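[Solved] Which block belongs to which protein?

Original post:
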Amino acid sequence: MSKPGVCPYRLIYCRGELGSKGKDIAYEHRLVAARMLGRELRRDEYIHHVNGDKNDNRPENIIVCSCKEHMELHARYCPDCGKKFRGNSSKPCSTCVHKRDHSPVPCPLCGGTPVRRGGICLHCSFMAAERVLRTRQILGVSQHDLAERAGILASGLCRYERKIKPISLNIYRRLLNALFPVYSP
């Protein structure tokens, strides 16, 4: 994976070679494709790397295609309905997400107040934050160490403990696992 703002393609010295178009340097994948075809590439021809590695410029890993064909090769499809869309292919499209059941369910901790799926009620949230604070103080674990172990920001943990922000069930579980690690033999 390349760094943001840095071109992932390799430039090489190529004065006078096929595919260089009279320049001293060119992108290696375009030179390899020009050699494969035995001619200069047109501006409307794109290079697709079959295995996704932009530094793997072997001829068997390169396909010359049009813009439309290249976009089709990179298209993503919704796992629920199969519709083509932009975004992460492992998640459903916006249409399918809105069709899902979002009806409230009882709080998983107290069984009372209805909450969104995967959430906990405000009362349980603040009680959970208080339990985490007391346990952390009893065990002598610093706020920074606990946050690091749980994989959250220390400022976020501070907001939970001060009851400024409600804690989610997922974060609560992560904090408990960080306080009481489960070791498997």
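(Second protein starts here: sequence line, then its structure tokens.)
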Amino acid sequence: MSKKEQPQRNDIIDPMAEIKKRIGVNILEPLINKGYLLEINHAENCKALNENLKNPAVIYFNHISGDDPFFIAHLFLKHLPNRVGNLIFPVSDEYTIFKNFPAYATAVYLAQSVFGFQMLPIVQSYRLRDDQLSKPNKEELSQKVFELGRRFVNTVNEELPKGATIIVAPEGHRSSSGVLQPAENGLGQIANKLQHQQKDGFISDALFLPVGIRYETHSSKTLNFNPLSKPKIAINVGDPLNISDVVQGTKRMLSYLGLNDNEQFISRQQLTTYLMTRLSYLLPEQMQGVYGYQLLPDTLAGRFELAFNKDRKVGVFDKKSQSFIL
């Protein structure tokens, strides 16, 4: 698509934005106040995203529990109301099936029908690394990965120049320990796409906003809602990063680690790793996991991946030691 053909977002804010915000806040805020002690730190970092509506934005967060998307939705509706009109939120295809996950599937339905959010189903790549899948089932899942992935990429390509906001949990699966797991490379793929769209003149810039979630008390990987003993959660909003920040920051990271053999080419994995290190800064050292300083070179080398262990739980597999470390 040429620059002239590329659709642009209207300068006028979505006329339904304020109504959607009030509905969302009036639903989510009472529920959150009833069952959690939620603290949002540095919400002022959302300001740049509110002021630059023509520029696309990516909000990304660490994933610990089933509560997390509700906290991120609350943050979005309360502090980024001007962006309500064009939101893309990838979700695991399994969580869109009511009989499997009724609460989550209902939330996905409401997000689509009430707010008009594009809740796009995806299949995480680690699910293809399941040794217990039969060959026909793996082939079927591979086809699903391709079809849903193509739909997601096509939607992103079309909507980003209109100023869309993407909200994503890059790890692709909850971390039961709360420690950062290796992210899939979709985040870096989006960064790479935005870099090319800027170069080709389709967008002037884009912003990435890392959001760190920390539970002081965490008892469930599903929902921790508890009116009798409210869990305390801190949401830390990081500094927004533009495209140049991400590219130059990635180059500095590689140079610091002595890995900048090809300064002209930055891979999706390298972009993902840099963005995840920025997320790790919002968390205590014990939660930084594979993005902590000691493991960062191995993470860049692709040493770690998500996989199913013998108990059919998803964990972090160390390809060097051939064992699970988380």
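Accepted answer:
You had them paired correctly. Confirming on the second one: Residues 4-12 have pLDDT under 50 and may be disordered.
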